[in-house]
Design a protein that fits this description.
membrane, TerB-like, Molecular chaperone DjlA, mainly alpha, 253 residues, transmembrane helix, chaperone
Length: 253
Amino acid sequence: MLIVIFIAAMIGYAIGRLPGLLIGGILGYALVRWLRVKLIGKLAERQTRFLSATFSVMGAMSRADGEVSEHERRSAEAVFDRLNLNGAQRDKARADFERGQQTGFDLEAELAGLRQIVGAQRGLLQVFFQVQLVAMAADGRVEQSERDMLMRVARGLGCSQEEMARLEAMLNAATSGGGTQESAQPLEEAYRVLGVSSEATDAEVKRAYRKLMSQNHPDKLAGKGMPDSMRRMAEQRTSEISNAYERIQQARG
């Protein structure tokens, strides 16, 4: 942003020497402040839309078997707790969760809107799925109807086969309690987390690892629309990626 002030000041100097320099600097500073307000406002809007879509889809997934149980409602509340939502945020999250459960809820339209928000930031998509999986696997098991709905959501968001494989690995990790120890993570699952085959070279594995770590870096995602409340989820995702990479390295010696 300082470059904007500098350029404005130099233009002012070229036009009006010292007085122009001062006026240009002031105008440049005003422009920077205006841009900052616009950018912050746009980011806040993206974060609000991202949260709304996340919780409404969670609501739709909770009725994948045709009804919403009290356990599923408690699971949603547990997710809200985990995200440290304040009073107003929690009320909005509940409203979105209930909206997703309605018979007339247009899941495809909601996914299209979310896809627009995410854009090329695939790491945001991983955080979205992380939240869904926490809610789905709260009781340690996932019904087939829930798996089918999850894959429907993934297809609606334009997930590639590679991303679908990673999603399956995330689901397995969620239902097995997380698998935080490298030695406890199945090698096949570690390859799925990184989106590579067991035949991949060491260089290909490292390249996939670095790409995923870059895509899922919490600071980068925060600048692209991830709400602060989801930072913990992003950190958990990067931990899973690191564990998978270390598990593969361990197996390869």
